[in-house]
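Figure S4 source data
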Amino acid sequence: MADWLWQALLATGFGIASAVIPILSAEAYILGAGVSGALDPITAAIGISFGQTVGKIGMFLAVRYRPDFNARRSQREPKGVNLDTRWGRLVHSYRSASKRLLDALSDARYGLPVTLLSSFTGIPPLYAVALLAGASRMGVVGFAGAVFLGRAARFVLIAIGIAAF
């Protein structure tokens, strides 16, 4: 089997796992691949991007075809923050920005750009965007394209940065 093929398959498998288990870091995988020299970081980045897209599509479809899924997950209220502290104001600012962007998913004009922004920057978190997009009227193909483009750009930039050293 070609060297790049097993590297891509391994990265794709880790990408699927990291898409649904938030504690698994795709960025750390690419960093480890580049630093160790065991894997090509660009191949790992593309494989991770594909795997993350597959995993997020699975989450998207789970919400779309199981309406009670989102209701059960949204029962938890976020912890209150002390607005008198710098940290509290920062957390409040982050939450309000994320909420505004997540509300934009319901609008046809903003759904794909918010998904693309989320998949590239992580604000709002792509995990939440995938769950909410499944409940919205967004199409699966558009969602998948935006996630893959954003993730590929993010991970390939990381890989290029690692390969430069």
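Figure S5 source data
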Amino acid sequence: MNSKVPSDYADLLERPIVGVLATVSPDGSPNLTPKQFTWDGAHLRVSQTIPRKKFVSLQANPNYAFMITDPDAPARCLEVRGWLVTVEEDKGAQFYLDLGKRYGETDGEPPSDADDRVVMILDATRFTTK
């Protein structure tokens, strides 16, 4: 396990690939959710709404794992582990809309749940390759 992103896997964090965010629910059960994300070199950022299970789970237990699989070579994977650092308001769902553009979505309208949207900032501390 590395504390830095292996250079030959960094592209998986830079490309618009949907990853899978794993958390543990307050009742102890695992929860997996596909997520669009951005990477700033130290943190993953994902969009979420406050009432949903993923938000509740990370509030109860801030630890997470995030798996990114290369769509061009499915045996090539990067697992990121860390914890929820902070949650920021997503005013007007702007981060959500920016994510959509990053992933090729053309609808530029805020979603109906825009008032509940937040940006979860996840510290990335360990990296495992497969």
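The beta strands are 19-24, 30-35, 38-39, 43-49, 63-69, 77-89, 117-129. The chain has one domain: 7-129.
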